Amino acid sequence: MSSIAAVLWVAASSPNPDPMNTCGLVRALESSRVFSRCQSQRVSNGRRKQTTKIMSCRRGRSSVVSSSLVVNPAGEMTLSSEEKVYNVVLSQAALVNEQLRSTSPVLDDVKKPQDTVRPGSLSLLGEAYDRCGEVCAEYAKTFYLGTLLMTPERRKAIWAIYVWCRRTDELVDGPNASHITPMALDRWEARLEDLYRGRAFDMLDAALADTVTRYPVDIQPFRDMIEGMRMDLRKSRYNNFDELYLYCYYVAGTVGLMSVPVMGIDPKSKATTESVYNAALALGIANQLTNILRDVGEDARRGRVYLPQDELAQAGLSDEDIFAGKVTDKWRNFMRLQLKRARMFFDEAEKGVTELDAASRWPVWASLLLYRRILDEIEANDYNNFTKRAYVGKVKKIAALPLAYAKSVLKVSS
Ligand SMILES: CC(C)=CCC/C(C)=C/CC/C(C)=C/CC/C(C)=C/[C@@H]1[C@@H](COP(=O)(O)OP(=O)(O)O)[C@]1(C)CC/C=C(\C)CC/C=C(\C)CCC=C(C)C
Ligand SMILES: [Mn+2]
């Protein structure tokens, strides 16, 4: 195991499991006061055509699920995943509304809670953040490149968030994944609750504990990401896009919600806080859909098919075609629709980047443009995502930086 992998490996052995360890979304829904408002704003497209469902777009919100209500396997009407997740977006936006738009620089580079820090611990904290930076550089060159374009304080905070996310993913995807049980995830969640109370288990947790005292980053998206990992343990097929959307929210949309409080919103922005959060959610979903489309072959070799089963069937395809890994016209047509949907989420995300604090736009544009390029590479590979990994080369990566810069300065979307 490399030293970085060793750092990521977590014993997940905190005592003190949280008795309130229930699904975050359910809790958010139960306590949601905004649901009735959402319903009155909704434009329903009906549920007849699956293909229009993929392409439809609702005002101000990415919308790939055509109805707010869906029928579950027991035949009951339940809220669609999009609606459940939107309720989380609203509650997150409400939590931070004013703080994020403050013109005073308290959230960046100035607010240093030094009076609560013991002598010597500042340098330890510095080391902890440096370690987070190393892990980010090792595992995610593109994100790391993006963070180098940020202010030093924000960069450190994003590294700490990155490392927590990576360690969480590593629990179910890393070398020790076969030993991971739902109980280990419960312990990981208890550790999270502890670090939010200022009791960090190790130095990487300490970096995040510090970050959440400096920026108004709520715990809910972190809990929800753990829920996504629980989902990964118990599920390897997704019946429809509604199910996949919820998974993408858990493992990636949450990253958008964690990041906005660090990135900040432009004090001059006229956009609502919800719409900015919604765009951040869309960026996470777009990134995860891109991951899924890039890694079809790799995932299939691990027995996983994230692509919606009903859409595969509509295209005349099944799991067997994926395991066979042959690029046919059916596959190309299917992939064209999937790529189109992922691009819709990137388009939705673009609207929000321009509303971020000026100092955060460049890195976000850079990572958005680079991640979206992966979709172009899948096309360039003639949709062979079974045996060819779509990859954006170094030259293209570097070339994207001035374009991202221009977009962030000109404040344009698309
Ligand atoms: C308004 C607006 C647009 C604001 C921007 C908000 C923002 C910065 C959003 C970031 C969204 C983002 C980067 C999402 C990450 C999605 C992702 C890649 C999720 C991965 C999940 C599991 O996938 P899988 O197992 O299939 O993939 P691997 O093969 O294992 O890679 C994750 C691995 C979950 C964990 C996520 C991370 C480790 C990435 C976290 C990234 C950051 C905190 C950095 C964000 C920084 C910049 C500069 C965008
Ligand atoms: Mn993973």
From TrEMBL:
Name listed for the protein in its UniProt record: 15-cis-phytoene synthase
Highest rank taxon of the organism: Eukaryota
InterPro entries: Isoprenoid_synthase_dom_sf, Squ/phyt_synthse, Squalene/phytoene_synthase_CS, Trans_IPPS_bact-type, Trans_IPPS_HH
GO-annotated biological processes: carotenoid biosynthetic process
A GO CC term attached to the entry: plastid
Keyword Aminoacyl-tRNA synthetase in annotation: no
EC number(s) per entry: 2.5.1.32
Family label: Belongs to the phytoene/squalene synthase family.
Reactions catalysed according to its record: 2 (2E,6E,10E)-geranylgeranyl diphosphate = 15-cis-phytoene + 2 diphosphate
Record GO terms (molecular function): 15-cis-phytoene synthase activity; geranylgeranyl diphosphate synthase activity; squalene synthase [NAD(P)H] activity
Pathway(s) served: Carotenoid biosynthesis; phytoene biosynthesis; all-trans-phytoene from geranylgeranyl diphosphate: step 1/1
CDD domains with a match to the protein in the record: Trans_IPPS_HH
Organism, as annotated: Brassica campestris (Field mustard)
A Pfam family this chain is assigned to: SQS_PSY
Alphabetized UniProt keyword annotations: Carotenoid biosynthesis, Isoprene biosynthesis, Transferase
Enzyme class, UniProt record, top EC level: transferase
